[in-house]
């Protein structure tokens, strides 16, 4: 098989959560353990950092990987899902895994895959761990796929565990309350391993504190220790100072991820750096400054409050649940425009009502559907949206919806594209 045939095999033959939803989620680690045992447990041959949470874990993973890279560490980065190319999931110093490695891995492990019958995600985790071993990385930043306790990535023994925040998402698999979801996310906190929690919440704090105590793990809440001040925003950067216990820590930081929600993520990242330094990582302030200015260039991150074009201004964002869309709306409200055009698509297993209730009523809507089985048909989305007084037209593809929005918008208007990671993936 060539590369494209190999990826088609992975997509079509293996249960894939992004395509079919909950039926692809394996509720134990048995397959991953069996797969990695057969691969001689590559994940134990380099340092790792584990990053989970409901929102922001992707941005946090990329920022931390960029900092480690600038600090001189050969850095692996495993994230999901990808937007355009499967290989985005597996990077070393920002460079995607080679097509030949993907092809050879599947070719040599095809018998094992047939025997174990793993999911798509389980195979990609094993592939990433093996690639990082082959490339002899110093450290790998590993983003949790879904949840934490039963996520395939949770066979690593990291130097640091990071949980960005908790909100209601994937409730059909992780639980219906903040506390239940926090229990699943807390599963990445390991024995005698420091843990950083990005944001406090009265329902989740006790869960994390209890888990850390059970594991004899030190626990710190980033928002207790650090604050962002003197924040200003330009079109291409956020500028800010970070203070620690009212004392300047990092002044004049520039961040090339401009969504205001990154102000929460950056505190989590800097706290993670502080904790890594305590256990022996050599990370100079200059590495932090240089990395945060160039996260997208260093890691290939896309889709986070990303400007696609100007005149009219077109912005996309992968926020896809209540908390994520809340942040999106806050960012929209900071932009001057004459008319707002919303290109929106969603998948079936999200809390659609909670998202629709947040969307602005004084906008022109272009309801669409990404090209995957989990997609909510555009006409169904439009019907539900009408209950919230959101009106617009329906389109069978994201591309057609965006083209129509552009044809209707003036140079002083704003077009936003989102509602789902998979909507963004089709237009960047």
From TrEMBL:
Pathway: Cofactor biosynthesis; tetrahydrofolylpolyglutamate biosynthesis; Cofactor biosynthesis; tetrahydrofolate biosynthesis; 7,8-dihydrofolate from 2-amino-4-hydroxy-6-hydroxymethyl-7,8-dihydropteridine diphosphate and 4-aminobenzoate: step 2/2. It catalyses: (6S)-5,6,7,8-tetrahydrofolyl-(gamma-L-Glu)(n) + L-glutamate + ATP = (6S)-5,6,7,8-tetrahydrofolyl-(gamma-L-Glu)(n+1) + ADP + phosphate + H(+); 7,8-dihydropteroate + L-glutamate + ATP = 7,8-dihydrofolate + ADP + phosphate + H(+); (6R)-5,10-methylenetetrahydrofolyl-(gamma-L-Glu)(n) + L-glutamate + ATP = (6R)-5,10-methylenetetrahydrofolyl-(gamma-L-Glu)(n+1) + ADP + phosphate + H(+); 10-formyltetrahydrofolyl-(gamma-L-Glu)(n) + L-glutamate + ATP = 10-formyltetrahydrofolyl-(gamma-L-Glu)(n+1) + ADP + phosphate + H(+). Belongs to the folylpolyglutamate synthase family. It is an enzyme of class 6 (ligase). GO terms for molecular function: ligase activity. PROSITE patterns: FOLYLPOLYGLU_SYNT_2 (PS01012). Residues 303-420 form the Mur ligase C-terminal domain. This is Dihydrofolate synthase/folylpolyglutamate synthase. Its EC number is 6.3.2.12, 6.3.2.17. SUPFAM superfamilies: MurD-like peptide ligases, catalytic domain, MurD-like peptide ligases, peptide-binding domain. InterPro entries: Folylpolyglutamate_synth, Folylpolyglutamate_synth_CS, Mur-like_cat_sf, Mur_ligase_C, Mur_ligase_C_dom_sf, Mur_ligase_cen. The keyword Transferase does not apply. Keywords: ATP-binding, Folate biosynthesis, Ligase, Magnesium, Metal-binding, Nucleotide-binding. Functions in two distinct reactions of the de novo folate biosynthetic pathway. Catalyzes the addition of a glutamate residue to dihydropteroate (7,8-dihydropteroate or H2Pte) to form dihydrofolate (7,8-dihydrofolate monoglutamate or H2Pte-Glu). Also catalyzes successive additions of L-glutamate to tetrahydrofolate or 10-formyltetrahydrofolate or 5,10-methylenetetrahydrofolate, leading to folylpolyglutamate derivatives. Residues 51-272 form the Mur ligase central domain. It comes from Pedobacter ureilyticus.
């Amino acid at each position: 098989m060539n590369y494209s045939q190999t990826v088609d095999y992975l997509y079509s033959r293996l249960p894939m959560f992004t395509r079919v939803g909950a039926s692809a989620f394996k509720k134990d680690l048995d397959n991953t353990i069996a797969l990695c045992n057969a691969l001689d447990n590559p994940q134990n041959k380099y340092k790792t950092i584990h990053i989970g949470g409901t929102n922001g874990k992707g941005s946090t993973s990329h920022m931390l990987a960029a900092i480690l890279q600038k600090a001189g560490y050969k850095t692996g980065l495993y994230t999901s899902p990808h937007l355009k190319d499967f290989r985005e999931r597996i990077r070393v110093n920002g460079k995607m895994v080679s097509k030949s490695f993907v092809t050879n891995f599947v070719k040599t492990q095809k018998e094992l895959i047939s025997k174990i019958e793993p999911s798509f995600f389980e195979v990609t985790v094993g592939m990433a761990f093996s690639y990082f071993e082959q490339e002899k990385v110093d450290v790998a930043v590993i983003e949790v796929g879904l949840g934490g306790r039963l996520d395939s990535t949770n066979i690593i023994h990291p130097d640091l565990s990071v949980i960005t925040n908790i909100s209601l998402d994937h409730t059909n698999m992780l639980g219906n309350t903040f506390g239940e979801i926090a229990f699943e996310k807390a599963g990445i906190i390991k024995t005698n391993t420091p843990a950083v929690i990005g944001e406090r919440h009265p329902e989740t704090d006790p869960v994390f504190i209890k888990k850390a105590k059970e594991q004899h793990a030190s626990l710190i809440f980033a928002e207790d220790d650090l604050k962002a001040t003197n924040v200003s925003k330009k079109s291409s950067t956020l500028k800010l100072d970070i203070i620690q216990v009212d004392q300047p820590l990092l002044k004049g930081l520039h961040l090339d991820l401009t969504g205001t929600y990154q102000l929460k993520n950056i505190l989590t990242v800097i706290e993670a750096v502080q904790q890594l330094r305590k256990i022996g990582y050599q990370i100079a302030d200059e590495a932090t400054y240089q990395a945060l200015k160039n996260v997208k260039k260093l890691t290939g991150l896309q889709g986070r409050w990303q400007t696609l074009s100007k005149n009219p201004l077109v912005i996309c964002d992968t926020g896809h649940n209540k908390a994520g869309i809340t942040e999106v709306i806050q960012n929209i409200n900071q932009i001057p425009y004459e008319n707002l055009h919303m290109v929106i698509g969603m998948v079936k297993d999200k809390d659609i009502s909670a998202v629709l209730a947040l969307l602005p009523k004084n906008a022109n809507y272009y309801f669409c559907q990404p090209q995957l089985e989990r997609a909510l048909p555009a006409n169904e989305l439009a019907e539900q949206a009408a209950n919230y007084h959101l009106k617009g037209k329906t389109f069978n593809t994201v591309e057609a919806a965006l083209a129509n929005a552009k044809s209707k918008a003036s140079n002083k208007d704003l077009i936003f594209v989102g509602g789902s990671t998979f909507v963004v993936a089709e237009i960047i």
